[in-house]
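Homework help thread (please don't just give me the answer)

Our assignment gives two proteins as sequence + structure token strings and asks us to describe the second one. The first is just a warm-up. Here they are:
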Amino acid sequence: MSAPVHTLLKSRGKLASSLRAEQVAEITELFDFRRVGYSLDAPFYTDPTIFDIDMKAIFGQHWIFAASIAELPEPGDYVTVDYGPFSLIVLRDDDGGVNVLHNVCRHRGARVLTEPAGTTGNLVCGYHSWTYSPRGDLVHASAPGETKFDKGCFGLKRAHNRVVAGLIFVCIADEPPTDFDETGEIFEPYLAPHDLSKTKIAYQQNIIEDGNWKLVMENNRECYHCDGHPELACSLFPTWGLTEGLIPLHLEEVWDRNKQAQSSLEDRCRRYGLPYEVVEELDTRVAGIRISRDALDGDGESFSPDGHRLSKKLLGDLRDFRLGRCSMHLQPNSWFHFLGDHVITFAVFPVNEHQTLVRTTWLVADDAVEGVDYDLKKLTHTWKQTNLQDKAFVELCQKGAGSPAYEPGPYMKSEYQVEAFINWYVQRVQEHLA
């Protein structure tokens, strides 16, 4: 390389499409010579130029989990979703469908909707009152003296969306990746029985983690650190991600209990016609996925100290609380836990190269009554604590990546899903740079 990577990447650059040719060559080489089985070089986690490329190559090109349909129960309900330089409005229309619009007024670029969620009819920009329909069409713009102003040319820009099993995904690329529908066909049968259309938000938590978005995702993709989650370890077997031959002595008894619980769970799934098999294509398809139904410890029903249910209301058409958790990972920004009594969705939205918003949403049956059918503090306790612990782990790694002493370290065998995420990421950026 003609210059040290750290020197090259000190100053903030433009998106990949407008970088100087020598910068593109240097960054391409950085990706090409990434050492398989090791964490990434420091600039991947610290440099604003690479962050800009991530926003263009990953969040500007691929399907991103934005929200669930439970967050938009009525026509006119909306959420705003911000990541990197982008801001989107995700809106339920009068026909029950979903529209996704860029939250940028076509007059002078002001944010149109400024609240994180709410209900609206037409969308009115607070700057000069340009008014748009829920589909984004410009319906009113006061233009004194203008005789050639064509409102039809100035509607809000639209983004693509897909709603699968009650989960809303968005893509701002002109031509979205085409294999997402195939991935949706994989996970829809697992999630449909929980019926998100008949759920409501019990609680939503937004945490800013002082770490690069990739560190947030890496942390989620392994349980090597799960000794640091005492609340979660009450119900989630700490042997998750391990296989025969990798079980440490102090977890052998837990491993045996896990295998017995998993066998019982699979018997119940076959009885109820629920899919449970592991599907793992994290880096072998563009819309990477891992999904399975896994047993929980204790009563095997929910994320509680004894594994007992946390809501008295079953979801959808499920017939049994003791169904463990249906766990799904999707590249690049989400993971999910679907249980018999509630659902938890996790969305990762990059803020800048060293900050990431992690949004966690707890969903319960729409007829569940707080204080009667569930205790909100108990419902959210395990993952609130786990999120705070993960925030601390991510921030430790971000500080380390900023040290001159940092160099990539090896992933352990139990961290194979981290390697798969990084491999997926590198492939996607290389495709973009090419």
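The one we have to describe:
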Amino acid sequence: MSGALLVAGTTSDAGKSVLTAGICRWLAREGVRVAPFKAQNMSLNSMVTADGAEIGRAQYMQAQAAGVTPRAVMNPVLLKPGSDRRSQVVLLGRPVADVDALEYGALKERLREAVAASLAELRSAYDAVICEGAGSPAEINLRAGDIANMGLARAADLPVIVVGDIDRGGVFAALYGTVGLLEPADQALVAGFVINKFRGASELLAPGLEQLRMLTGRPTLGVLPWQSGLYLDAEDSLALDAARGGAEAPYGKETLRVAVARFPRISNFTDLDALRCEPGVVVRYATGAGDLADADLVVLPGSRATVSDLRWLRGNGMAGAVERRAREGRPVLGICGGYQMLAERIEDDVESRAGVVDGLGLLPVRVRFGADKTLARPRGSAYGKDVDGYEIHHGIAEVHGGEPFLDGCRDGAVYGTTWHGALENDGFRRAFLADVAARAGRDFTPAPATSFAGLRERTLDVLGDLVAEHLDTGALRRLLEGGAPAGLPVVAPGGAPPAPGGGSSGGG
């Protein structure tokens, strides 16, 4: 096998990331050397590779699904929004600019060249490359400069499958409309559809699939059933609108309750996945002071806009609630941006350009933002347990008191660290939660057998099983080996029957 395909979606969070991971795991188990690829990713969930490059967390997870080492070329362009109008541009793992939409246009040719070279490198090194699109391929206002969806497919002659989330409703309109809005040369590469998150009677769905085939001339390659607990390493905060992880435990004295501040620019909320996977721990996302009232632990997570999100925290009353908790000796954990908020003072002439800003003053720390970005994979220990994590930050914390806590500090029941991923270390997580439970007066005891790495592997295996059992894997192989079928019809918007012939098909 030697080929590639693009997994596109009708919307953000339609299932592109998990389907790409599932195809990677299925192919890897079939003995195929496979790699993931996402040309351009807009996400605040990122990860640091072993060689110090920053890529989307979802692509890191997909590489694990494929059984290969995550590399910068698997996500050459990463956009990290800091406001509604500006984003940091990370190119091949390193930040190169902070731009608005118009300034971004000036970088497009440089980014396009990096995308093409990265995909070519992966295709020369692996038997198959599974590419993930970004958002929807039918964003017609963005098509001219597109490097992640049909622009990529056209440039690299990739067959495309489009996944739609039926749980949201309107999936047939979304799939038909996605194809219908594309120009004929783009349509010629769209080879089929995948329905995601189906729960119901298959016999009721079947007539719709047949009508979709008649209207578009394209088959549905599979229907993936609803499966809970598949939100590990989500890249879009839309995932927080749905339940993340397993069912919540019933509230009781043995239940540990965790409230996480849902900042407008929340980043690396994947840090909390390890807590959600711990039996007896309930994790909720909080947007107001009342959401913190019965929490045993409040977490201030990462943020791409520390000063702005601190202002949000103060504006909705949560800052005052956190300060009261600290005075009462009730646990608070700050991670990266959240840790910076707990400091006495923040000096930021880089991210927000706000100058000197008062922090919450709950830790003996001063933070200064620098132009250089720290990207690292540190190791250390806490509670007598080995801990490794990863760092992604511009803010440098200067600690002048308290007790050591990883690279940060602890003062009473307030903890702070710049390390993402620390809670994924099983021994450390259990020891930390036992400490929190003791301070909160809970009878909660962490389960000694919980392995976050093992759970991740089992989840990736589930994704591979879903592909193997519910998709037309023969059709996927044909697309990888031969490209999009010749003569796919052109779909006219508005419900007209498909016209025969779709231009160049890129292979037979």
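TA reply:
I won't write it for you, but here's a hint about the kind of observation we're looking for: The chain has 14 helices and 27 strands.
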